Amino acid sequence: MGICIAVHSSKGGSGKTSFSINLAFAYASAGKSVCLLDADLKAPSLFNYMFPDSDCWLNDVLEGKRDIMDAIVEVVDDKVSSGKLYVGYCNPDIDAVRDMSGKDRKWQSKALQYIMAAKKKLFSSGIDVLIIDTGPGVDFTSVNAIAAADYVLMVTKHDRSHQKYMDQIIEGIYIPLGKDYGVIMNKCHDNRPITISGVAGHDVPVLASIPCLCDVATRSDSEVLTVTDPEHPFSKAVFTAIMAIEDCLSNK
């Protein structure tokens, strides 16, 4: 059975999608069969990266119109020669985004069933690791992805607004859903490790603190740091997250 990881954030601009991509490549480079899905239906971005085109969207899967296997495409790249990497996108068309933004709770409840069915289908087809790049905050689709996940990685920033929303999300979503989770503190102003006081009586596991480095923004659109620069602080945070996830899930 595979593992499903939701990569989440308290607010936008945290570097969540870059982390998701590097996480997917790191797993695939280690010989895993990986599927990376863009579940940020209101602000899709994964299609902008160096991935092949697709003629089927995750939106269609969540509507029950298409099978998940129709909505993923293989990334043929020498950097993942030891494993396999597949990606699935949300529809970036503005009309599709508007349509997704207007969905009600009844639709979201049905969409969760489709997500769970897609997860089961992907694992039965040989996927070892399913990574879901969620939307930020508490959008229903993001909560669905979190509900389907075995582990949640929150990528956030160490500032007051991100901290406030992070506390609310942990207390209001992760803990009630009984989710194992870890926090990646990105874009920090120095290299000192950051700790967070407990939330609702629970210790908050900060897996890594990544300093604010301009080269991450300039390089991550054209290269995958975990492959090209494994000693980079961003890459090290990804590898640390993988070890933490494996340790957590192996003890369950």
How would you characterize the overall build of this protein?
This protein has 252 residues and is an alpha/beta fold. The chain has nine helices and eight strands. It has an eight-stranded mixed β-sheet with strand order 3-4-2-5-1-6-7-8, with helices on both faces.
Provide a brief overview of the structure.
The protein is of the alpha/beta class and 252 residues long. It is 39% helix and 19% strand. The chain is built from 9 helices and 8 strands.
Shape: globular
**What ranges have pLDDT less than 50 throughout 5 or more consecutive residues?**
none
Q: What about the largest sheet?
A: 8 strands, mixed
Beginning-to-end CA distance, first to last residue: 14 Å
Report strand %. 15-25%
Any idea what the radius of gyration is? 17 Å
Structural class: alpha/beta
Sequence of strands across the biggest β-sheet: 3-4-2-5-1-6-7-8
Helix content: 25-40%
Number of strands: 8
Order of helices and strands: EHEHEEHHEHEHEEHHH
Question: Topology of this structure?
Answer:
Layout: E1 3-8, H1 16-29, E2 33-39, H2 58-62, E3 72-74, E4 84-88, H3 94-101, H4 105-124, E5 129-134, H5 140-148, E6 151-157, H6 160-174, E7 180-188, E8 206-211, H7 214-219, H8 225-228, H9 233-250
Parallel strand pairs: 1-5, 1-6, 2-4, 2-5, 6-7, 7-8
Antiparallel strand pairs: 3-4
Helix pairs in contact: 1-9, 4-5
